[in-house]
Amino acid sequence: MKSLVFKNFIINALGILFSRILGLARDVLIALFLGAGLYSDIFFVALKMPAFFRRIFAEGAFGQSFLPNFVKARKKGAFCVSVLLQFGFVVFLFCVFVSFFASFFTKIFAFGFDEKTIALASPLVAINFWYLFFIFIVTFLGAILNYKQKFFITSFSAALFNLAIVIAAFFVDKNTPQTTLYYFSYATVLSGVAQLILHILVLWRNPVIKAMTLSIKLKRFRVKLKSFYHNFFHGVLGSSATQLSSLLDTSIASFLITGSISYLYYANRVFQLPLALFAIALTQVSFPKILKYLKSNQENLALNFMRKALGVLAVLLLLAMIIGMVFSVEISQLLFQRGNFTKEDALITAYVLIAYLIGLLPFGLQKLLSLWLYAKFKQKIAASIAFKSLILSAFCSIALIFVIEDENLKVLAVALSSSLSAFYLLFANIKEFGLRRFFDLISWKLSVLTCLFLSLFGILLFEFKGLMIGILIEIFIKIKGIF
Fold this sequence. Notes:
By secondary structure, the chain is mainly α. It contains 22 helices and no strands.
């Protein structure tokens, strides 16, 4: 059983890693063609909108509510059909609504944009938003795969979004950024279609899909969804708080110097790599396992599983944080400094990355601990914690903006506030999980040894940073010479 979980974690992590590598390639191309200015800010706002609602209605509240209720449901096929039809219809209507009132929604997501910028961004928002419809169905099908302990397809399919942008880049010119925006937007929507087709092909003969088909043929798919909706709406509050925080960050950045939205986006993309590779990959694998343990009244096994997962995750995140902080400037320059993305842009992005990385450990650990609340159907408590975190982040952002005098560095206030809110999220989740229960999960001797090792690792990494970069450059030159 342990080897199966480890295998699933590795498979899921590999799928996410492949997707994130392509994601970095995508961001390198976006930086090349759009730089860090007006057009990149517009594109990131257009992307932010479907991503915002995706994480609420798809990966967030929906995912956290669907799986526990799916596990409990007796008629799984009928349950799935009811959920898909009802939610699919609502999401479709919502996409139509946003398409007609794109200017209004653009103003909400980028309140600091002037009328001219809103006019440029609105058509792109209308196009990009249809990605939400396809990705909702993908998330629904992905949840069925996760229940069957199959994680690779869902984690891998996200790579199709990045691949679509990379392919679109071959047809654009960096001297025509406005045309580039439309190519990238249509590529985004088509990637959603591609992900949907992939999931349909994989699930074609799945027992749950067969049960759904039978329910439709017999017209027996009317099941009570009261419990699901109860958990979902509380989950919406929790997920929307997290996404409102992201929306608030974008809105605040729109009032700062041009390019601030882009700095946050590029730095956050790098920050999301270890977070997704370790924290998200592990929590996706852990959630079905914890649910099954608790359903069969095996809480001790669930806690033992949490103990091991927490230890592994903490070490991986701390290593990633140290490496990211030490090489932040080099990472930013290597990935983004080319074309319309200047050396100054790379330096500011590196500072923002460091500010985000401060919160990497608490962000990752709270994701794992929050699973306990969702598995225990405590979505309401999770929502309350998330909203308090949102208020704290907003207050800190505004306060720090006034404290930081350099106009170019005011964007750091947003990233630092995000990290501060992560510490609150962690402590609040520990409190709900139970302080005594949490401390029982920790091996103190191992923790001390790990901290000493990581401190030594960080010092050595910083001291020999120049030497390591020199060696890497030499290796790169030799490889380049061979080819």
